[in-house]
Each structure stands twice: as structure tokens, then as C-alpha cells.
């Protein structure tokens, strides 16, 4: 049975009762309330999907009430089950679209009295909003909080299960390696025993030859013993070959596990590079040394007992090298590794270094004009300034040298080279050294297999602005502090960033941000950081949206760059970050501290500090410009810390004009005459913004 209960009118966000206030009611009957909609131009529900729902104070969730369109208007159906609960029934209207949600500011209250009549009236606004807040919280918890919690709990359980499976596989693999090592040790022991027997037999044969004239019988016996020894030697050779083959199989398996990141060894050993065999006194126990003289590098390993031992050969190259041809970096070594050349002005072959010639051409010298060209002539880059064609040197320890990337080198691959037909002790040592190889896998993994960090200055080594602590002012925008890192300053307490022995600490209501070039869309990436002493990670697929996590955010909504955000965990006491890495893919690799010189070179694509002298010409008003150490990614802006004349007077205010490009500072023009030499303290930056 259906009952037309009453009629309401919607005016703006208000419900007005226009029909009966007392209605006779019969249990199990459906009630209809006629709705007169607001047709005015300022109707807040215009263009929205309109819905109705009713609720009681005892119900956990509101009940949707269908809207029925009839010939004489719109009706709201209140199912008879609504009145089976105790208490008043509250009827509200709501609307939503893609941009907003709108609800009525009051509601229709329906009460069933003792005479089984329904009394209808419109509730006060404040009483309605108490009900709406409670309902909204219930809906939010049921539809948002609880599903997200359940989903994250399921993902966490899956990660725990995957971790346990990986640990079991690692233990099984380690057991197999130990078993194979035991078999190799047994085979090598047998081979050495047979070799010793062969040596003894050969000695017996020599003695027998000396007495051959007087002891023919003994000679025959000795000859027979020699034949037996020969057979034993052949057996020993066969055993040695089998041992070498087994060793190579283990080496191949180790390399496979190394590539897959399944093995780890003891930390602490180092990987060294050089030209020629290592110096006997160099290195410490556990070090590896690569002789880079040729395409195939000789590999040496150092132990306390036997010093440097040649282990075999690998196909050469520097792993993880992502710098382009023509990139220049400072280093402390006076010899360059494979693929790099010292910037000493030497002439090199256009054929051998065709890629480099295609980048720099004859810009540093034409060589003989046909077969050679000149390398840049750049002495210690952080210890001199250039004035026209003169170089002014300054004292600096240790000495630095400039290298230029000349060839693109593939990462190190391959395994130990072992000649099965060579019976020398060195080959036996190569097989024995497999145990040492396993113990040093973690260092090799970090040096050669880890993917490059896509963030610049991820361990905060580079701080060209020079302050140990930055207290940022309220600019309402992004403010840079440590190279390539910035914070947004619009909320108090304002950010304070402090340099620590390892990493930084940042306080205040702000996050730590680095803007990076747009990532490949819909590809997986992994963020890893050591935050407050604990390693945290987040894997995400790059997108044009913002991805929010507990410790990180990724924001792909900006036009020019993406943003990586480390979130503040404690605005009062601060959050400590030792490092942050961004890797392509879904693997969180171990952190490898970047070489300072390479880290500085990467930063100098965006920010360079210059403290040095400059020469003044044209009656003391024009300063001769200079070329930047590295070409900027974009045209930089300049910040004048101070400019002093020869009398140590600040003349920054006298600068009236200057010219900048990505390559150089072309000139300064002063408003009046200054000394012939001035001292510049400037900062140039094109650090990215959204």
C-alpha cells in the first residue's frame, strides 16, 4: 500500500514544508513525499545528480530514498522499513557532480506518535548539521578508511611472504655454493697428491738412468714406474681440467646471481683501477685490482698470506657510467680509466676517438688537420682562474685533474678466465679463490650492478651556498638551500635545514623537494631513503597525477618537471635524512655514496659558485668575462654575494649591466672607474622550478 504523506519544496539549500503536518500511517505501507524542485537560475543543485536519503540517530548508515518521476511531479519513496527502527526519521536532499557535493541546510523530520500518526516538521539547521557530520564520518570510514587499511594490510602480508621466499632461496643457493666449494677442494687435493706422486716417480726415473749400465733390471723397473707416473700425471691433468670446468660453472652461476642481486658478501673490500700490475705494497687484504691496459682486464685479489694474486681476466669497462661523450669531471688520479682522457691538450686520433671528435671537433685545436685533433687543456679546475690567455694558479691540496669522456664503455661483464690445459699453480689458486669471490660479492654488487641514482646530490654532499644551517624566510614559494634541494615556505613554523655529519635535518611545516625532468609515464620507479635512521622505500608508476605515501610524495602534475618529495615527520624536532635515491624499476638497490667530484659536476649543470679575480679594461669600467667550468643546463641567474675592488671595498652597487649565457659570463659594466683587478663572490643558478 502506498501513501502520499506530504509535500515539500526545495528553495536553494532549504527544505520548506508545504503539505500536511500530520499524516495517518499504516504499518508495512510505503510513504511518498512530493518534491517541488527549485527552478531558479541560482539553484545550487543545478547541473547536479539529485538524490534523497533518510537516517536515524540509531542507524550506522543513511538509507538512500529513490526519486520517482510521475506525470504530476517528482516523488521521494520512503520504504516502510525506514519506520521499523526506533526514533525520528530525517529526510535530506543532496547533489553532486565532478567538482562539488551540495546538501540541504536542513531536513524534514518524520515522527510516529502513539496514535500511529506521522507528524512532519522541518528541523532547525544546527540540529541537522550534527546529524550530517555523523553520517559523513560513518560514510567516510566505511568507504575510504576501512578499504584502504585492508588493502595495505594485504599488500604488507604479501611483502612479508615474498621476503621469506627470497630468504629461503638465498639460503638454498648459499648451501649449493658451499657444497660445490667442498667438491672443488676435494678435487684439488686429489690433483695435488697425484702431481706429487708424479714428481717422485720422475725423480726415481733419473736415479735409475744414472745406474742403467750396472742395473738393467733396476732401469726396467724405473721405466715401468715412469710410465705409471705418466699415467698418473694424465689422470691429474684430467682431474684439474674437471676442477677448472667446475670452477668456471660456479663462476658463471655467481655472475648470474650477482646480476640478479641474489648474493651478498662481506662489506669493506675495495675495487681499484690502474695501468699495469699492482704495486706489491699497495692495497689492503680483501681489495680487488683491475689492470685496464687493454680490452681484457687482468684481475688481482690481495690476501694477507700471499699478497696480490692474479685471478684471471674480465672484459673491461666502467659499470654504471651514464655521463655523455664530452662530459668533463675533476678527479684526484693522475691517470685516466678506460674510456676517459686527461685534459692536457694532447693530440689524439680522429678515428680512435671519432665519437669525441664528433662532439668537440676542432674547438680546442685542429691537430694535424686530418688525422688528429686536440684535447682541452684544463689544469686543476678548482685551483686556477683564467684571465684572457693567462692562467692564474692557486695552491690547493690534494691536486685535481680534469678528465673528458672519450668513449662509451659497457659495464663490466664476464668471469674468471682459467686455462684448463695450463698446469701452473696460478690456475689452481684461481679455483681456490672462489671462496674469496663470494665473500666480496656485496662490494662488486654496489660498484658494478647498482642502477644510477636519478636524483642529484642525493646524500647532500654538495653545499655551494656554504651555510651549515638555513632558516628560510616566508616568501610564499620554493626556496633552495643545499644544491638541487628546496622547500616551500608559506606555513609557520618556517623551515630550518641543518647540515649533519651524514645527511641533513629539516624542521618546520615544510617538506624536502627536488624537481627532476619528466619521468617516462606508466613506468615503475622506486624511492629509497634513510629517514631517522630507518631505510624507507616506495615503488610507484609515474603518472600525471600526485601519488601520496607515508614518507614520500611523487607529483607529476607540473608542466615542466616532476617533483620528488620527502615528507616532514616531526615539525618540532625535525626529520633526519642521511640519503635519498631514485631508481628506475621496482628494486630498492643499496645506497652507494657518489664520488664528490662527480656529484659536484652534476650539480654544476644547475648551480656554480665562483670566488676569484677578474680584470678590468676600458678605462676601468668594463670587466672581462670568463667561461664557466661546466655549461649550464639552462641560462642561469646571478646572485651577487659581494664584489670587492683592490682596496677591499664592496663595489657591488656600481654594477649597472652584465650579460650571461649558458656557457659564460660575458661582461660586467660599472657605473664609474674601479681598480684594475676586482674580486668576485657570486653564485650562478638555474635550479629547476615547477
What does this protein look like?
- The protein is α+β, with helices and mostly antiparallel strands and 690 residues long.
- It contains 7 helices and 41 strands.
- Strands 3, 5, 6, 9, 10, 11 and 12 form a 7-stranded antiparallel beta sheet that branches.
- Helix 1 (125-210) packs antiparallel against helix 2 (216-260).
- Residues 256-268, 410-435 and 441-448 have low confidence and may be disordered.
Beta-strand segment tally = 41
State the end-to-end CA separation.
Answer: 63 Å
Basic shape: flat
The mean pLDDT is 77
Binned strand content: 25-35%
- Return residue spans where pLDDT drops below 50 for at least 5 consecutive residues: 256-268, 410-435, 441-448
Largest sheet: 7 strands, antiparallel
Secondary structure class reads alpha+beta
Counted by DSSP, the helix tally is: 7
- Structural Rg: 40 Å
What percent of the residues sit in helical stretches (DSSP H or I)?
10-25%
Descriptive terms for the model:
7 helices, six-stranded antiparallel β-sheet, 33% strand, 41 strands, 690 residues, alpha+beta
Amino acid at each position: 500500500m502506498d501513501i502520499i504523506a506530504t509535500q515539500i519544496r526545495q528553495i536553494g539549500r532549504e527544505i520548506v514544508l508545504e503539505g500536511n503536518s500530520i499524516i495517518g500511517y499504516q504499518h508495512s505501507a510505503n510513504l511518498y513525499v512530493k518534491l517541488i524542485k527549485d527552478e531558479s537560475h541560482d539553484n545550487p543543485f543545478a547541473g547536479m545528480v539529485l538524490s534523497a536519503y533518510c537516517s536515524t540517530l540509531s542507524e550506522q548508515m543513511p538509507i538512500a530514498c529513490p526519486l520517482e518521476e510521475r506525470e504530476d511531479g517528482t516523488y521521494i519513496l520512503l520504504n516502510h522499513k525506514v519506520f521499523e527502527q526506533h526514533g525520528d526519521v530525517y529526510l535530506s536532499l543532496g547533489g553532486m557532480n565532478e567538482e562539488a557535493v551540495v546538501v540541504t541546510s536542513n531536513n524534514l523530520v518524520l515522527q510516529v506518535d502513539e496514535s500511529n500518526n506521522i507528524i512532519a516538521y522541518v528541523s532547525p539547521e544546527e540540529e541537522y548539521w550534527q546529524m550530517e557530520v555523523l553520517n559523513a564520518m560513518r560514510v567516510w570510514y566505511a568507504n575510504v578508511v576501512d578499504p584502504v587499511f585492508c588493502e595495505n594490510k594485504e599488500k604488507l602480508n604479501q611483502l612479508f611472504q615474498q621476503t621469506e621466499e627470497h630468504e629461503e632461496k638465498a639460503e638454498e643457493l648459499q648451501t649449493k655454493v658451499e657444497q660445490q666449494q667442498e667438491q672443488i677442494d676435494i678435487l684439488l687435493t686429489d690433483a695435488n697428491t697425484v702431481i706429487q706422486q708424479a714428481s717422485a716417480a720422475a725423480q726415481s726415473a733419473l736415479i735409475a738412468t744414472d745406474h742403467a749400465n750396472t742395473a738393467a733390471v733396476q732401469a726396467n723397473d724405473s721405466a715401468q714406474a715412469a710410465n705409471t707416473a705418466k699415467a698418473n700425471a694424465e689422470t691429474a691433468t684430467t682431474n684439474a681440467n674437471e676442477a677448472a670446468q667446475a670452477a668456471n660453472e660456479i663462476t658463471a652461476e655467481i655472475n648470474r646471481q650477482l646480476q640478479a642481486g641474489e648474493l651478498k658478501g662481506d662489506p669493506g673490500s675495495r675495487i681499484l683501477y690502474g695501468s699495469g700490475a699492482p704495486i706489491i705494497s699497495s692495497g689492503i687484504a680483501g681489495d680487488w685490482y683491475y689492470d685496464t691496459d687493454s680490452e681484457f682486464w687482468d684481475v688481482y685479489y690481495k690476501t694477507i698470506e700471499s699478497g696480490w694474486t692474479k685471478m684471471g681476466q674480465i672484459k673491461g669497462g666502467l659499470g654504471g657510467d651514464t655521463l655523455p661523450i664530452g662530459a668533463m669531471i675533476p678527479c684526484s688520479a693522475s691517470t685516466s680509466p678506460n674510456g676517459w682522457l686527461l685534459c692536457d691538450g694532447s693530440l689524439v686520433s680522429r678515428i680512435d676517438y671519432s665519437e669525441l671528435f664528433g662532439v668537440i671537433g676542432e674547438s680546442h685545436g685542429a691537430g694535424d688537420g686530418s688525422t688528429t685533433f686536440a684535447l682541452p687543456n684544463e689544469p686543476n679546475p678548482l685551483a686556477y682562474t683564467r684571465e684572457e690567455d693567462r692562467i692564474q694558479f692557486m695552491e690547493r691540496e690534494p691536486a685535481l685533474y680534469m678528465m673528458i669522456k672519450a668513449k662509451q664503455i659497457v659495464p663490466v661483464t664476464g668471469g674468471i678466465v682459467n686455462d684448463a690445459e695450463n698446469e701452473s699453480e696460478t690456475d689452481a689458486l684461481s679455483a681456490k679463490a672462489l671462496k674469496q669471490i663470494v665473500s666480496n660479492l656485496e662490494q662488486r654488487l654496489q660498484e658494478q650492478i647498482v642502477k644510477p641514482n636519478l636524483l642529484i646530490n642525493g646524500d647532500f654532499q654538495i653545499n655551494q651556498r656554504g651555510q651549515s644551517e638555513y632558516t628560510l624566510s616566508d616568501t610564499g614559494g620554493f626556496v633552495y638551500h643545499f644544491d638541487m634541494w628546496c622547500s616551500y615556505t608559506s606555513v609557520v613554523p618556517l623551515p630550518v635545514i641543518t647540515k649533519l655529519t651524514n645527511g641533513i635535518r629539516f624542521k618546520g611545516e615544510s617538506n624536502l623537494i627536488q624537481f627532476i625532468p619528466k619521468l617516462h609515464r606508466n613506468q615503475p620507479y622506486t624511492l629509497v631513503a634513510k629517514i631517522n635512521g630507518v631505510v624507507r622505500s616506495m615503488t610507484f608508476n609515474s603518472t600525471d597525477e600526485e601519488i601520496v605515501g607515508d614518507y614520500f610524495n611523487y607529483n607529476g602534475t607540473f608542466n615542466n618537471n616532476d617533483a620528488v618529495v620527502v615528507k616532514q615527520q616531526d615539525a618540532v624536532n625535525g626529520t633526519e635524512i642521511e640519503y635519498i635515491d631514485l631508481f628506475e624499476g621496482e628494486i630498492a638497490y643499496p645506497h652507494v655514496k657518489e664520488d664528490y667530484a662527480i656529484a659536484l659536476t652534476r650539480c654544476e649543470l644547475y648551480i656554480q659558485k665562483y670566488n676569484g679575480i677578474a680584470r678590468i679594461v676600458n678605462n676601468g669600467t668594463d670587466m672581462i668575462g670568463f667561461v664557466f667550468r661546466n655549461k649550464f643546463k639552462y641560462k642561469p641567474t646571478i646572485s651577487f654575494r659581494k664584489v670587492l675592488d683592490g682596496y677591499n671595498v664592496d663595489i657591488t652597487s656600481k654594477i649597472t649591466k652584465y650579460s650571461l649565457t649558458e656557457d659564460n659570463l660575458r661582461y660586467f659594466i660599472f657605473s664609474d672607474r674601479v681598480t684594475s683587478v676586482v674580486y668576485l663572490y657570486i653564485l650562478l643558478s638555474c635550479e629547476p622550478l615547477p
